[in-house]
Amino acid sequence: MTTSYRTVYAFAREMHPKTVKHDIQYGTAGFRTKASNLGYIMYRMGLLAVLRSRYKQGIIGVMITASHNPECDNGVKLIDPHGEMMEQSWEELATKVANVQDDELEQTIRDIVQDYNIDMSIRVNILIGKDTRPSSPSLAKSVIDGVLALSGKPIDFGIVTTPQMHYFVKCRNTQNEYGVATEEGYYTKLVSAFKKLRGDKYNNKNYENRILYDGANGVGAKKIKYFQERLGECLKIVLYNDAGIGTGKLNHLCGADYVKSQQLFPTGVPSEPNQRCASVDGDADRIVFYYNDENDKFHLLDGDRIATLVASYLKEIVSETGLDLNLGLVQTAYANGASTDYITESLKVPVACVSTGVKYLHHKALEFDIGVYFEANGHGTVTFSKNAKDKLNQAAKGNILTESQQQAASKLLALIDVINETVGDAIADLLLVETILHAKGWNIQDWEQTYTDLPNKLLKVTVQDRNVITTKDAERQCVTPNGLQEEINDLVKKYKRGRSFVRPSGTEDIVRVYAEASTKEECDKLAAQVAQKVYDLAGGIGNPPLIA
Ligand code: G16
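Above: the input record for the complex with 1,6-di-O-phosphono-alpha-D-glucopyranose. Below: its predicted structure, written as tokens.
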């Protein structure tokens, strides 16, 4: 088979011409912007996926989603053969391919082929998935054109969650060793492991097997139905926010991002006192838990809470197995200070802090035998090294350990199958949390009582060019604009347990401000004051932030 490069420019010129003058960057989770500006980017990512696939000699995934963003946005990210986010060194290439002029595209592709010594005769399959955004089908068509232009074979998985796509890619590349690369295979793997761990006793002490589920009016609402069918009475998932495609309701006043960033109960879910609820985001790769108490006070259990729950449980089981496996936890600067104290001081699990973006957390987690990573926004999972899996498999089978140690090893092996190791997966994480709460006999209040969060606040500031903000030290320190970090330091000093940082978002055209302090009033004030400094020193536009 030979690939003709001529179609590359012809397709671009006739069907997918570059429509945006300014450059767009491969951000925290790929390209993300107004859907109407993305046609040519999608086509070009189809081209790049084929190059990456031939270079890696493995199957590559392309996911079309803008996750937590509003319905009018869309985005695209590439998934590497292990089911992970595309290697960072290729992000620059992606940005280059996305931004060259149409008549430079063919040469850019030729240059990459030459520089990376890519064998263009290799037959490759590119898996394509999309969320429920109305713009997704036509954008998928553009990706397919890109794949075909370089003689790749597109395989369309239709509407799926982002973590399902990561799972499919990994399954295909491991010849189904990781699982069967179909939706059915995914449901079967997760549900069988969950049921095995739960056994016949659906409730346990304070734990009740009922949860209210906010589907964010997205793909997470569609796919949870397959779990409802399979789980039945074992776990009663009551679905809310399942509006039709194109109703404009995706992530609107609901979903994990809304609940976490606004710290509010979502619309569309009934408020039942002390009832455990969960919200996923628009592509179901994040989840947060929450409840309203009898006084209608809202309580949030976010990604930090999930991380601590999971790490503490894994630590218990690992010690029951008697095996020597190192367990570590990875967070970002957004992690609540109280959670980090709890992990280091009470759980005595080592913690690493990395920049925002699952790609950074995932890679750090791989350094441990068992790496738990979660962003405070509810995006995370657990990774297990080959060493850990080998030891557990031997322990579960062999006679070297006591019976209780063998049982613990078998339990941990089943737990691995409830987890989607490739990326944060809201539904797999839901099943994991439910498994742990059930095992501990805990209700959501028992879970919450493990430590007390410091009040915290997230704000957004709109500036002319968010790239004027640069950071270091896992985004905890601001390098430019000059003087901003000093101003933040001066403000933080005034508040007990004060902490604040700013960073440009990689998924929205804004700067994010995070603050925490010992009281809610002080935290709100600190956040607003830091936001004002960003507005003043980083070229704020529109209305200045309000100072509480
Ligand atoms: C994506 C990334 C997350 C990140 C989030 C917000 O999530 O996968 O790792 O935390 O964006 O990023 P930023 O603060 O740079 O806008 P999602 O769920 O939107 O795909």
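Notes for the reader.
The chain has a mean pLDDT of 96.
Residues 466 and 504 are 5 Å apart (CA to CA).
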